[in-house]
């Protein structure tokens, strides 16, 4: 079903366009500013027409056309029409579907206060199309007005969804463009509705907006929950059926490594075109090609990636300014480098010019022979290079459209889309880009996004340096067969100083376009009001996502509250996390704007009304306040760089700092470590040499019979002694253990020669403590003339060591480094897991020793980065609880459990919403509505008391019989439930009580 919305600016002289798409293929026309009189409305014989003509002056006019086989009627609006507001509402019956089309035109901007009650009064699906003449960042404008602010506030709290993207619908004669024609629909159908803007304006100054409503037949009324446990169990059975699968994949991989032959199936891709949102689906460039490749190929590519990335990182082959697709190289570092460089230029009163480059079809134009040459230069040699060359050459593809496959097409250049190894190879291809830079010019690369910048006190100096660099870039691109589109590049002044003149920087003879802001990795860098522009951009994206969240947050079915909160965190609040190293410098006013976004999203997820107090909302959602989490994640970002040590890109290839923290971040970091009573020197960091293999020692987790905890303790002891006698007779035995209490966190180690006991920082977890104990034992208790047998009751530490990767905890990398040092003495090292408290005397001695620690024992000041982060996350969550406990709501509402704890006891979305509203006292009652000016009489007509939820459940005489039955089922003493706070503390204390309460609510007219 298709609708066309269009401000036609007079339809009489444009009738000819109604015979061509999109008008000719659309069932419904919704036109504004028709300029028609009564006798002019017969535009097409296949339509029925409903219209409003402006009376008394020219212009205006609305027309809604529906198919002949549809029936419709005009709905009285109940308010008078005027020159500043024209509204036409039509109720439509079409093909068993019943909905309403509202057509409006507001030349001076729509005042939502006049019409919102009319819009909200319908119980069937509603479409609202029109020329609203409103500007707001929510739909991409750079300004707003009181009318648009009121409209957005209504939209966020209504049951309607905005369908438009940021594509403009109006083009002024001056060349400026804006989005004035909005398309809105009910949230209940928004998942099936899509819209895009036509590329032609058909002789009007407004572009038509095409809306499609994809209606699925036989949609079930009830959506049954999926039994994931059964599905996963069945999947595990299938996957474990063939026990030779590992051997088979290993054999195939070894064969490929030996022969360098790549099967043809591995080099074939099936392309599935996926339509881009809000694009015209009749255009080929409106589709995103998704490549499906061989699963076996992807498994093998991951093996290749492990070897390639380990080589690139350990040998420091990739410059620190090249980010993306490598461990320890995330987008935050790329953005933070630009931010610190701009701040540094500001503090030294320098000019700062930045250039963003756009590589045309970056992946698809990579020169394969040139890529292989660069791999050889980076030290990627031998069979891996041959495999890569064979993998990239003579590839083929087919396009799948619906159920048909196209013919096979050869691909002679470029990196394969959908390939696991392609991103890493593209990083290798750009690794030498720094050769193009003139002295004093810096850069940052993430994937195919390139940002070049230069700062200096002389503008002429910057101009010459950047122009020389652009000429070098042109030569470099020509040599390596890449193309840069100068018209899509941008250049901007990001300094505080005013430019005396605008430098002319060219690429291949074409001047680069100057912009007010420059975008890099989603962050808009600007000359003025940097934080304000970042917040405005993020807030606009977040509001649109909240709009989308409303479309799936149904009131009676669909995703549960827990899932919706996770969606809100991962898709809306994460917009602020992404650039936390920059957004942590927001002002308090800007932080309040961030927190407002979070509470709006949580209100939608929990199904609570907009007047729910924010502090209550955060408590029942069990969430950190967004502003606090931004600060925590920023601190986490900086601490992580310290823990990554010389392997962090903040250090260059000579281990010198390449990114300097700005003063404010230095102060934040210093205060953080002052609170911890430690220093940055004591963070457990990566060793200088990264280790990616896990076969440097023997690790026994379940190889011996005594490692079965189901055995009785005396049997475990005997079996252990037997294994030591048979397998480790000549080994030097060392046992370690750790202890954590309210007073101390300690580690201990013992051998037959000596022992040690240390206190460690109390923030360290027991996992970190167990690993540190083994590290210390290797330093203090080892002997050089015997092999070593280390005993520990920490299964998790040995498991982590056995599965060592670049992402393993830093303390595990530290332990691996200690073991390798011992290996240099040609010692054989075995680590054996022993069940705790199983009468094994070595473990019992180490355990007893660790628990005897006192204040007099020496302190090891090492502290794990992961434990610092965990500690601050706990503190941040505690702030939410403390804020609630110190508020006025603690006394009136009582302690509210987080919805996460109650969700397992509830059955569906409707129950989630009812319980959330009960606990927050936000069940809709006359007293609650009167409190916000939405009801005239707050009193109960029977009892003459405030008709709130407490009165209804505990005191209203109308429900006395039902109340007695409820108390009997719950075994409650009415005298102990004199307040709603006391009642709910008992009613939600366990699953049985909660289920009884839910079943009884209908008796109290609570639905």
Automatic annotation (TrEMBL):
PROSITE patterns: RNASE_H_1, RT_POL
One Gene Ontology term, aspect cellular component: DNA polymerase complex
GO terms assigned for molecular function: nucleic acid binding; RNA-directed DNA polymerase activity; RNA-DNA hybrid ribonuclease activity
Residues of the RNase H type-1 domain: 728-855
Domain Reverse transcriptase: 255-525
Coiled coil segments of this chain: none
Presence of keyword Protease: no
Pfam families for the chain: Exo_endo_phos_2, RVT_1
Keyword list, A-Z: Nucleotidyltransferase, RNA-directed DNA polymerase, Transferase
Domain of life: Eukaryota
Protein name from the UniProt record: Putative RNA-directed DNA polymerase from transposon BS
Gene name as annotated: RTase_291
């Amino acid at each position: 079903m298709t609708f066309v919305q269009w401000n036609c600016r007079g339809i009489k002289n444009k009738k000819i366009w109604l015979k061509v798409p999109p008008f000719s293929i659309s069932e419904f026309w919704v036109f504004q500013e028709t300029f028609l009189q009564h006798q002019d409305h017969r535009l097409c014989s296949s339509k029925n027409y409903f219209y409003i003509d402006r009376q008394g002056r020219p212009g205006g006019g609305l027309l809604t056309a529906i198919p002949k086989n549809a029936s419709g009627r005009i709905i009285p609006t109940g308010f008078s029409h005027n020159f500043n507001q024209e509204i036409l509402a039509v109720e439509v019956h079409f093909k068993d579907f019943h909905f309403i089309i509202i057509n409006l035109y507001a030349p001076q901007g729509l005042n939502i206060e006049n019409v919102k009650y009319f819009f909200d009064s319908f119980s069937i699906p509603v479409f609202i199309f029109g020329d609203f003449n409103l500007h707001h960042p929510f739909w991409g404008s750079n300004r707003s007005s009181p009318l648009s602010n009121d409209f957005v506030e209504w939209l966020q709290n209504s049951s309607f969804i905005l369908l438009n993207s940021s594509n403009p619908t109006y083009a002024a004669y001056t060349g400026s463009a804006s989005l004035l024609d909005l398309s809105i629909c009910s949230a209940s159908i928004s998942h099936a509705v899509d819209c895009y803007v036509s590329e032609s304006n058909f002789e009007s100054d407004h572009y038509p907006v095409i809306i499609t409503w994809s209606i699925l037949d036989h949609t079930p009324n009830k959506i049954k929950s999926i039994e994931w446990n059964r599905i996963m169990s069945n999947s595990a059975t299938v996957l474990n059926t063939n026990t030779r699968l590992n051997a088979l994949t290993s054999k195939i991989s070894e064969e490929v490594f030996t022969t360098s032959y790549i099967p043809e199936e591995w080099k074939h891709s099936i392309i599935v075109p996926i339509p881009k949102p809000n694009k015209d689906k009749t255009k080929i460039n409106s589709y995103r090609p998704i490549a499906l490749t061989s699963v076996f190929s992807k498994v093998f590519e991951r093996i290749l990636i492990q070897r390639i990335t380990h080589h690139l990182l350990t040998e420091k082959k990739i410059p620190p300014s090249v980010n993306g697709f490598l461990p320890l190289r995330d987008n935050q570092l790329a953005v933070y480098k630009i931010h610190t460089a701009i701040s540094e230029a500001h503090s030294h009163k320098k000019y700062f010019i930045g250039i963003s480059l756009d590589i045309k079809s970056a992946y698809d134009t990579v020169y394969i022979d040139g890529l292989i040459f660069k791999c050889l230069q980076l030290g990627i040699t031998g069979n891996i290079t041959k495999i890569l060359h064979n993998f990239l050459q003579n590839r083929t593809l087919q396009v799948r459209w619906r159920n048909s496959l196209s013919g096979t097409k050869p691909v002679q250049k470029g990196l394969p889309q959908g390939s696991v190894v392609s991103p890493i190879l593209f990083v290798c291809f750009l690794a030498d880009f720094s050769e193009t830079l003139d002295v004093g010019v810096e850069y940052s690369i993430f994937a195919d996004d390139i940002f070049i910048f230069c700062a200096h006190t002389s503008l002429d100096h910057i101009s010459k340096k950047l122009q020389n660099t652009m000429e070098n870039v042109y030569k470099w691109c020509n040599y390596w067969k890449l193309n840069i589109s100068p018209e899509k590049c941008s250049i901007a002044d990001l300094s505080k100083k005013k430019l005396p003149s605008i430098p002319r920087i060219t690429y291949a003879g074409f001047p680069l376009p100057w912009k007010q802001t420059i975008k890099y990795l989603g962050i808009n860098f600007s000359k003025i009001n940097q934080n304000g522009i970042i917040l405005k951009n993020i807030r606009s994206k977040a509001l649109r996502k909240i709009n989308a969240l409303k479309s799936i947050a149904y009131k009676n079915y669909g995703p549960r509250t827990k899932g919706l909160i996770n969606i809100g965190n991962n898709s809306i609040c994460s917009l602020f996390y992404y650039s936390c190293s920059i957004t942590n410098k927001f002002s308090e006013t800007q932080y309040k704007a961030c927190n407002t976004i979070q509470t709006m999203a949580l209100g939608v997820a929990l199904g609570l009304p907009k007047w729910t107090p924010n502090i209550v909302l955060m408590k029942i959602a069990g969430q950190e306040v967004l502003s606090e989490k931004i600060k925590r994640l920023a601190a986490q970002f900086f601490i992580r760089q310290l823990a990554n040590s010389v392997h962090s890109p903040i250090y260059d290839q000579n281990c010198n700092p390449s990114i300097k923290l700005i003063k404010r971040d230095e102060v934040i970091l210093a205060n953080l470590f002052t609170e911890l009573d430690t220093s940055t020197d004591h963070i457990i960091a990566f060793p200088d040499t990264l280790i990616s293999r896990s076969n440097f020692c023997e690790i026994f987790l379940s190889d011996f019979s005594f490692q079965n905890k189901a055995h009785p303790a005396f049997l475990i002891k005997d079996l252990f002694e037997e294994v030591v006698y048979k397998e480790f007779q000549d080994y030097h035995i060392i046992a370690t253990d750790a202890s954590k209490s309210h007073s101390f966190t300690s580690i201990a180690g013992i051998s037959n020669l000596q022992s040690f006991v240390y206190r460690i920082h109390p923030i360290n977890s027991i996992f970190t403590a167990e690993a540190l104990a083994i590290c210390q034992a290797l330093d203090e208790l080892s002997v050089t003339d015997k092999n070593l047998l280390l005993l520990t009751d920490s299964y998790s530490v040995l498991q982590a060591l056995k599965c060592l990767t670049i992402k393993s905890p830093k303390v595990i990398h530290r332990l691996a480094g200690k073991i390798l040092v011992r290996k240099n003495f040609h010692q054989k090292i075995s680590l054996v897991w022993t069940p705790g408290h199983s009468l094994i005397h070595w473990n019992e001695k180490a355990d007893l020793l660790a628990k005897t620690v006192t204040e007099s024992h020496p302190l090891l000041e090492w502290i794990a980065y992961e434990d610092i982060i965990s500690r601050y996350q706990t503190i941040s969550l505690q702030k939410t609880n403390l804020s609630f406990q110190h508020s006025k709501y603690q006394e009136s509402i009582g302690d509210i459990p987080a919805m996460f704890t109650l969700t397992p006891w509830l059955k569906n979305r409707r129950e989630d919403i009812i319980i959330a509203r009960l606990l927050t006292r936000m069940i809709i009652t006359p007293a609650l509505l009167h409190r916000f000016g939405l009801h005239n009489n707050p009193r109960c007509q029977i009892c003459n008391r405030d008709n709130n939820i407490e009165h209804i459940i505990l005191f209203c005489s109308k429900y006395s019989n039902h109340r007695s039955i409820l108390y009997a089922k719950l075994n409650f003493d009415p005298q102990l439930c004199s307040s709603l706070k006391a009642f709910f503390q008992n009613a939600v204390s366990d699953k049985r009580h909660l289920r009884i309460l839910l079943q009884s609510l209908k008796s109290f007219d609570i639905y």
